[in-house]
Design brief:
Length: 403
Amino acid sequence: MTETTTCAVIGGGPAGMVLGLLLARAGVEVTLLEKHGDFLRDFRGDTVHPTTLRLLDELGLWERFAAIPHSEVHTAKFESDGRSVTYVDFSRLRQPHPFVAMVPQWDLLNLLADVALEEPTFTLRMNTEATDLLREGATVTGVRYEGPDGPGELKAELTVACDGRWSMARRAAGLQSREYPVNFDVWWFKLPCDGHQEFSFLPRVGPGKVLGVIPREGYSQIAYIGAKGTDAQLRAKGIEAFRDDVGALLPESTAAVATLTSMDEIKHLDVRVDRLLRWHTDGLLCIGDAAHAMSPLGGVGINLAVQDAVAAATILAEPLRRHRVTDRDLAAVRRRRLFPTAVTQGVQRFLQRGLGPLLRGADPTPPAAVLGVLQRLPWLSFIPAYFIGVGVRPERAPAFARR
């Protein structure tokens, strides 16, 4: 079966859904292919940052988003030697919603999908996996896919790859990337809340390991950070040793840690950081993690992917409406988004170097001088809040998409 569309979007993550919605609101015919039957996935990034919240506002979706159960994170703190020091304060941001909303990503994606489907030019194909690219000579002309009714082809004037760090499309197109060394991996798991604890992106640090505690509705999402390449070693030690490690960093949550019964509950993320040298070829554009895999440090990858989508829609809507997308148009997306991507990855790599000594067993106690400066100059908490919550070169919703 062969179908046609103006723009084929591969992948129903935040970048793909935002791009599809914005282009559809511009009157562009869009078909989005999502390989899963729903958006229910554990431990996807569930942070919605202030600039993304502002985008939802500009799209007329704030009330619908606010009705989704979520928690708000306004600060991040260090705790050391009996004192608590705020190092990130989102309330200092001049944003309409100065906080990070913690919401299951599937709820956000369902909202975006429902709104996009209200547009007559938007088609969502679930359970449909893009398996290869269609080509005429050197030009990508669409995708081959495997759907509920078997294999098919979708011809498109432009194909946009939003299919993540293991992107089929960028691999099939032969696009080359630069990979940066990473010294850590992340293991995700959940712990029930005790009912009286309130976490605020609270890091817990011990010799050779770091925990990130992320507040969620009814539970805490835990990021266990350890040395890269140690997943097999960690699992070989078993769940009791893992509980001991976690319990040492969360002594107030002994009962919650005891609920971990199997290493199958611990999901490993193989962290990688890379960036395509060229984000497009004739007929194909990569954005989000398909163009630049991000470290989880700072939780900014989703925000960056959404900003990519907004920029791509802003630049490409009119050429797609005219059915005349040029190489210059596709290159313009990379030109606009390369600087914020490179700066963000540079900051992440700098932070990563600071993890190295900790993962090798160095003293995890923050220097007293640093804590003292943060206490005396609390406005410094604005700087990481801006980097995490707003980012470099934030994008605004184009006029054609606002409601």
